[in-house]
């Protein structure tokens, strides 16, 4: 299941250039098929004209994995706290303390970066004014292909806003499966509700459009994203404080899109190259 970003588009020349190798290596591929609007059932092409919708292949994280190749990256290492002073920062990760680091760059969602960044970071105001929306994602394995006429659908419904047939994406297993996203408003309004209640309400909403058997409903799983969409971006491509030697970037600086996350990080990288001396 691709339970996070569903696809991405390329509008910026820098993003396009950065993806040339990934495209040639088929790490990303266009997602083709029909895009429906429900409940009216109108159909349009998912990709074509100015809008090609790309997906990672064979899964959405393929692109990030390709970009990370050869880099020293630790995963499953949540940073719990930052301590130290400018030029000598330490990270608390479980019972480990890592550092000292000259600079720290945080790329977590704005509310999580705000909690971690020390008080001396001068851009706490910009972090605080950023607003992100939640999103609930429902994942369903279908025992039989419902032979839907679309690969994905935008839904005009108070509860759910998006349905995609994940197996319609390139290089995915053939077994039919659906990914359903709740709307940003409904997700925010029900953020702290028990997940079982959320799951049941989303299944009821889905059945207004697609028949789901009791066994499919029983096995459906739910994921809560606390920070999924960007409601109000920071309005600056990145936040950099060269006195404390702390910086932050992410999609929330610009817009809630994969391309925006790339552009924020790329712009911050350019700025850091001007001020940080990297040992030869
Ligand atoms: C359900 C859903 C559907 C979406 N659909 C689309 C779409 O169709 N098209 C599109 O363009 N975009 C879509 N998006 C948005 C897209 O996923 C984001 O724009 C993109 O992932 C943002 O990238 P990022 O690197 O800024 O942040 P993220 O992808 O959020 O990455 C932040 C990382 O920081 C890590 N982190 C957080 N706190 C800590 C900590 N304390 N220590 C260590 N690590 C930490 C997190 O684990 C995470 O890996 C969707 C998002 C969601 C949730």
The CATH class name of the largest domain reads Alpha Beta
Count of discrete domains: 2
- Which structural class matches the secondary elements? alpha+beta
Secondary structure tally: strands: 15
Write the H/E string, N to C.
HHEEEEHEEEEHHEEEEHHHEEEH
N-to-C terminal Cα separation, in Å? 43 Å
Average pLDDT rating = 96
Bound molecules: flavin-adenine dinucleotide
Please give the order of strands in the largest beta sheet. Answer: 3-2-10-11-12-9-13
Tally of alpha and pi helices = 9
Q: According to CATH, what is the topology of the largest domain?
A: Polyamine Oxidase, Chain A, domain 2
Which descriptor suits the 3D outline?
globular
Overview of this protein structure:
This protein is 26% helix and 29% strand. The chain is an alpha+beta fold and 280 residues long. The chain folds into 2 domains: 155 residues, Polyamine Oxidase, Chain A, domain 2, CATH 3.90.660.10; 83 residues, FAD/NAD(P)-binding domain (3-Layer(bba) Sandwich). The strands form 4 sheets. The protein has a 7-stranded mixed β-sheet. A 3-stranded antiparallel β-sheet has the order 5-6-7, with no helix packed on it. A hairpin with a 2-residue loop joins β5 and β6. The structure holds flavin-adenine dinucleotide. Flavin-adenine dinucleotide binds next to α4, β9, β13 and α9.
